[in-house]
Design goal:
Shape: globular
Number of domains: 1
Radius of gyration: 18 Å
Order of helices and strands: HHHHHHHHH
Number of helices: 9
Strand content: under 5%
Helix content: over 70%
Length: 196
C-alpha cells in the first residue's frame, strides 16, 4: 500500500484538531476593550502550547513519512493510535485553560502528551520493523536522545502537576522547545542516500 492516503488522512485529522482547539476560545460578547479579553488569557495560553505541540507532531510525522516506502497494517494501526491520543489534545487543552491550569488538569494534559509521545515511538518502531534493519529511519534517529528524554520530562510534569502547576508547565514547555526546531536527522540521512 502506498503512503499517500495515510499522510492525507493524518494531515486532515491534525488540521481538524487545531480547528477544534481554536473554536474553544469563545468570543466575549458585548465587550469591546482589550481588558475584557484578560479572562481568556489562560485559554489562549493553553491553545498556544497545544498548537505548538500539534505543529511539532505534524512536522516530525511529515519528515518520518519521507522515509517510508510502503505502508502495512501495523503501520496503519500505529498511526491511528497516535491520532487517537492527539485527538484528545483539544479536550485537555480546553479543560486546562478553562480551569486556569488547575493541578489535575495539568497532570491529565501531561498524561495525554506522554501517551502521544509513546504512540509516536510505536509508529516509528513499526516503520523501522517493516523496512528492516537497514531502514533510513533507523539510521536517521540514531540514539534518539530527545525521544528518550521526552517521556522522562513528561512524567516529571505529570507528577509535579499535582503539586505545582507552574513546575509542570515548565516541563511541558521544555519538551516543546526541545522539539521546536525541526529534526534535521531525517533530512541529512535522506540527502546522503540521494533521496528526495
Amino acid at each position: 500500500m502506498q503512503k499517500g492516503r495515510l499522510e492525507a488522512f493524518s494531515d486532515g485529522v491534525l488540521a481538524i484538531i487545531i480547528t477544534i482547539m481554536v473554536l474553544e476560545i469563545k468570543v466575549p460578547h458585548d465587550k469591546e476593550h482589550f481588558a475584557d479579553l484578560l479572562p481568556l488569557l489562560p485559554v489562549f495560553l493553553s491553545y498556544v502550547l497545544s498548537f505548538l505541540y500539534i505543529g511539532i507532531y505534524w512536522n516530525n510525522h511529515h519528515h518520518m513519512m519521507h522515509t517510508v516506502t510502503k505502508v502495512n497494517g501495523p503501520i496503519l494501526w500505529a498511526n491511528h493510535h497516535l491520532l487517537f491520543w492527539l485527538s484528545l489534545v483539544p479536550f485537555v487543552t480546553g479543560w486546562m485553560g478553562e480551569n486556569h491550569f488547575a493541578p489535575e488538569t495539568m497532570a491529565l494534559y501531561g498524561f495525554i502528551l506522554l501517551m502521544s509521545g509513546i504512540a509516536y515511538v510505536i509508529l516509528q518502531n513499526q516503520i523501522i520493523k517493516s523496512q528492516g534493519e537497514n531502514s533510513l529511519l533507523k539510521h536517521a534517529i540514531g540514539s534518539d536522545i530527545k525521544g528518550k528524554l521526552s517521556p522522562v520530562l513528561y512524567s516529571l510534569g505529570i507528577a509535579s502537576g499535582f503539586i505545582n502547576s507552574t513546575i509542570a508547565a515548565i516541563f511541558y514547555v521544555a519538551v516543546a522547545l526541545m522539539w521546536l526546531i525541526p529534526d534535521k536527522r531525517i533530512e541529512r540521512i535522506m540527502g546522503r542516500e540521494g533521496h528526495q
